[in-house]
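Attaching the record inline, Q. Sequence:
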Amino acid sequence: MSRDSKWKGLPASFLGHRRVDLRRLSTIGDQGAQHRTGACAEQEFVTSAAMPHLINANGGVSRVNYKRLLAAAAELFHRLSAAWWIPALLMRLFVGYFFMETGWAKIHNLDSFATRFAQWGIPHPAFNAALSAYTEFFGGALTIVGLGMRFVSIPMIINMIVAILTVKLKNVSGLDDFAELDEPLYALSFVWLFFSGAGWLSVDGFLKHVINSWLHQDNSQGMAQAPIGETSLIEDAGMLARHDSH
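Structure, as predicted:
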């Protein structure tokens, strides 16, 4: 069946309306295709135009997070530095107890300890043995409580140096043997405590707080009782001292 024979016998008015509807549908279809093409092109343009902005925004967020990470790390390191008193406390308790215990044992066995001093060739063995034993005992006890830590560290370091030079070095044949000795580690522990101090959780820390409060109170009373001219001079001198310290 041909295309024209299909519609043969139908009224002309119906065929005319059909042609109009087909043209209208074709026009609507073309407009829809154009609209879809324009929408896709517009969407592609918007996406392409927005990409640099989105990339820059993501880069900015990454940079902000990177800075926050560095700031958090710096804050953590600052807090760790402020908590230096914790390793100082642990060092004091361990090293102090060790020397208090060994000193106590030597005090209660001074005769044999003095005999060993004589065998090692140390002059005045009885006196030096008693001096070493009491230094270890009282130095260890003061180290535990943290009283006069910097002053206590000096005789403890000397005691370890004497032990190294007079006894331990005789059996040292090289750097490996020296590194395996215990006495240098104990000496270095007291060197560190000499520079760091006992920390705030100690008798030294309590005394430091009391002395600072007393000095601050005296300075406040002196400024309150001084005449106006002298007060201004004191304030100027304090500002000058702070400026010089910076």
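Confidence is low (pLDDT under 50) at residues 39-47, 53-59. Residues 204-245 form one domain.

More tomorrow.
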